[in-house]
Amino acid sequence: MIRLIWLFILTNSFLLGGVLYAQPTVRVNNEKTTVESLPDLLTLKHGEPVNSPEVWERLKRPELLHLFKNEVYGMVPDGDPIPSSIEVIEESDAAFNNKAHRIQFALDFKKGHRNLRVHILLYLPKDVFNPPVFLGYNFYGNHTVVHDDNVLVSDSWVRNNETLDVYNHKANQKSRGKRSYRWPVDKILQEGFGIATVYYGDIDPDRNDFTDGIHPFFYKEGQDEPGLNEWGSLTAWAWGLSRILDCLKGYEATADSKYILFGHSRLGKTVLWASALDQRFDMVIANNSGCGGAALFRRKNGETIQLINNRFPHWFSKSFKKYNDKEAMLPLDQHMLIALNAPRPVYIASAIKDKWADPEGEYLSAYYASPVYELYNKRGLSDRNFPDVNKPIHQTIGYHVRSGKHDVTAYDWKQFMIFAKGHLND
Ligand code: GTR
């Protein structure tokens, strides 16, 4: 039985994209038995065992994808591909003091009178051909990620943010480089990686409005919002990552690169789902992804299904709302999302003060995904006990909980690069 052990209000507040939010009420459910009742990964819906990679891939994987599409994130509507074109609109081989190439692409989607432009910013180290590439969305525009005056300022709707001087939902020159502390691009290039980033709002502005972004391109006549089990914003962002990958794979200098998806917070949720859907991504790193990302729903620690659906009604499909405060009814949990990445390397990163994301729930989810990795003779996480702070584990499933709060830090990137180098050729 699920029992709420205590209820408290955290007195601190948290920074979301530089905006100070009052920390919502955090419910803590300390009942360990709830995670022991997780739906079983290695049993098919009619009860047969999943005992080989072949059975996993042919039967269990599709079964789970179907559930996640129908019950949680929503599916991309069927239909003809949206016509798109890709163009290099700016490039230089003098970026980062002549050490890197910078390429900016415009990816345009067109349908009838609709046009959606997505800007891709790519940096490549000069001395490596087809290097492994980190690919991740940013929260406020490509120009916020680096101190580089040549990066184009996004024209899409952005969330207001006083720290970044974003008012009236328009990015501007003042926010150049203001998020560079989260993106050690110079270091990433020095270590021999490329890095590609896109402002996530180019694909779908992060607001409860389905008349903008990519969704309307898929509407049937008369439709003005997604249907019950159709996509919310998380699936739209995930879909966008695959289209960005199409572009990068079509570009000579990155055609044979390996791709490491990276995302923080809501974008950590996005990348786990994106790489579950698209197995061309070679590795995925989800930082502080929390509820709807790595964390187990059934623990109900920190953010819950009801809380997330109420605050962000556009993220998931409408059908997910029926699980508000009914976690036990879910036919799945997030260990299954992590397992959908098997046998590719996956890294889950938590921060000990990020209680809202339930660090231990993120760890246990990765731990309970491990049996699928073992089917492939890969090592997941073998110890059910939550590890010590700042003691990373780098098996084919990697995990760390670092000191500090919800953020992306130099420590995180150091671990991500060590993990990527150690596991890209697994
Ligand atoms: C919070 C939200 C989390 C997380 C975070 C973020 O407000 O409750 O699920 O996604 O935002 O994306 O920064």
TrEMBL record:
Q: Name one GO molecular function term.
A: carboxylic ester hydrolase activity
Among Pfam families, the record links this protein to: GCE_fung
Q: Which UniProt keywords apply?
A: Hydrolase, Serine esterase, Signal
Q: Which residues form the 4-O-methyl-glucuronoyl methylesterase-like domain?
A: 230-374
The organism's place on the tree of life at top rank: Bacteria
Question: Coiled coil: which residue ranges?
Answer: none
Q: What is this protein called?
A: 4-O-methyl-glucuronoyl methylesterase-like domain-containing protein
